[in-house]
Amino acid sequence: xxxxxMQLVEKYSPQDPELKRLWExxxxxxxxxxxxxxxxxxxxxxxxxxxxxxxxxxxxxxxLVEHLQRYK
Length: 72
Description:
Elements lengths: L2 H10 L4 H21 L6 H25 L4
Helix pairs in contact: 2-3
């Protein structure tokens, strides 16, 4: 996310529950991905989990950016 989008999230998430939820989900997916990507070896199940998390993160980011359009 760019700097402007981050500022919008910081400014409006306390008063916008949907924005706050989308942002928290985005952060959760990021943390889960970081944890898995730190491993030197991934099982096939973990590789599948990484793919699914990346899809969820991308879908969530799309929703987040669309939601932020209201504030631009």
